[in-house]
UniProtKB/TrEMBL annotation:
InterPro entries: Cell_Envelope_Struct_Comp, SLH_dom. The lineage of its organism: Bacteria, Bacillati, Bacillota, Bacilli, Bacillales. This is SLH domain-containing protein. Residues 35-93, 94-157 form the SLH domain.
Length: 158
């Protein structure tokens, strides 16, 4: 009796169409040729130093005007949205949202783009609260939506 071959699962892409892999490749190429980034408040032996430097070289994060990064400072909702927008497939929102508290914000375009693509929904009262601290759960939810992870199913992690 012949053995039946095990079914082969088609792997699901780790990112969705909202993530532009070409943008990521261009960022990595740029980062590889970018000069070293040093922040005066991030010791080279810090466990996060290499990650912070890479994110800065990728153009995902920026330091402060005084040469600091402030690694222990809380991050705002606008800041996390801005970082995530760096890998979005769209250059601008095609259907800007009407959050009542983002007009003139430095992150307004990023907020529109992530909202337009279903990554963020706002606070439910017409606001986004861009200057509020981003909670871990809010940040994680945005990342999972960007990576197209279904929250209704278990994750297969090898």
């Amino acid at each position: 009796m012949a053995e039946t071959p095990a079914p082969t699962a088609t792997p699901k892409s780790f990112y969705n169409e909202k993530v532009n892999i070409d943008v990521i490749k261009a960022l990595v190429e740029k980062a590889n040729s970018a000069p070293e980034v040093v922040f005066k408040d991030v010791p080279k032996d810090s466990p996060t130093a290499k990650t912070i430097e890479l994110a800065a070289r990728l153009g995902i994060v920026k330091g402060h005007a005084d040469g600091s990064f402030k690694p222990n400072q809380s991050i705002s909702r606008a800041e996390i949205v801005y970082m995530l927008s760096k890998v979005m497939n769209t250059s601008s929102a095609s259907n800007p949202t009407k959050f009542n508290d983002i007009a003139g914000s430095w992150a307004e375009d990023a907020i529109h783009r992530l909202s337009d693509n279903g990554i963020i929904n706002g606070a439910g009262d017409g606001s986004f609260n861009p200057n509020a601290k981003a909670t871990r759960s809010e940040s994680l939810l945005m990342i999972l939506r960007l990576l197209n992870v279904s929250l209704g199913h278990s994750l297969d992690i090898d």
